[in-house]
Design goal:
Number of domains: 2
Protein name: CBS domain protein
Keywords: CBS domain
Strand content: 5-15%
Largest sheet: 3 strands, mixed
CATH class of the largest domain: Alpha Beta
Distance between the termini: 26 Å
Mean pLDDT: 77
Shape: elongated
Pfam families: CBS (PF00571)
CATH architecture of the largest domain: Roll
CATH topology of the largest domain: CBS-domain
Length: 210
């Protein structure tokens, strides 16, 4: 079952209206006496809408929104190959796995930039990939390195049962854009990105607004 079909399945089973509970929670957010005017009602609706999105989001787990076809690398993968994969596949991070498919780290654009002394620079992995194949550039010292030399480890992971809201909170707290999803043995089964979470939020917003 694809990610989109799972989202549709969940949408079909969730009451996508603003509940009385959402309205009550919204009323608590409004300070002082409420004299219902068009402006008050609009504000009440806005807050109720927000609570509805938050409530419905709890129905979704990482396993429902994750990308299952994950590009991964091993600790021995060269930096040149990593950069080429990231550039050609249009991804900004690759999980590092061991021989048993367990996640042992992750390599991101930030890891490359850190090696170049440019933590705050913008990321252009296609440029780095070309640079690693040429001579005389700042990235040249990376040519002899491997994933194990630049990867971030240990890496933050979640399970299929982790709520999407919790995944979003982890990303915000850790300042990361993607989280590998593993089974109970730590083996890679998928990955959740900020884009996946945004897609779910948009789906819910559209349905709730109908």
């Amino acid at each position: 079952m694809t990610k989109n079909s799972k989202i549709k399945k969940y949408n079909a089973g969730i009451p996508l209206d603003i509940s009385e509970e959402d309205i009550m929670e919204a009323m608590k957010d409004i300070k002082g006496y409420i004299d219902i005017t068009p402006g008050d009602f609009k504000e009440l609706y806005r807050l109720g809408y927000r609570h509805a999105i938050e409530r419905l989001s709890k129905f979704f787990k990482a396993g429902d929104v994750m990308t299952r076809e994950v590009y991964s690398i091993t600790r021995e993968t060269s930096t040149e190959e990593i950069a080429q994969v990231m550039a050609s596949k249009g991804v900004t991070g690759l999980p590092v796995i061991d021989n048993e498919n367990r996640v042992i780290g992750i390599v991101t654009e930030t890891d490359f930039l850190s090696q170049l002394g440019s933590k705050d620079a913008k990321s252009f992995m296609d440029i780095i990939a070309q640079c690693l194949r040429s001579k005389g550039c700042v990235a040249l010292p990376l040519r002899k390195q491997k994933a194990q030399d630049i990867m971030t480890s240990p890496v933050v992971t979640v399970t299929e049962d982790t709520a999407v809201t919790q995944v979003a909170a982890i990303m915000t707290e850790k300042g990361i854009n993607r989280v590998p999803v593993t089974d109970r043995q730590g083996r890679l089964i998928g990955i959740v990105s900020r884009a996946d979470i945004v897609q779910v939020s948009c789906e819910l917003a559209t349905k709730t607004g109908d």
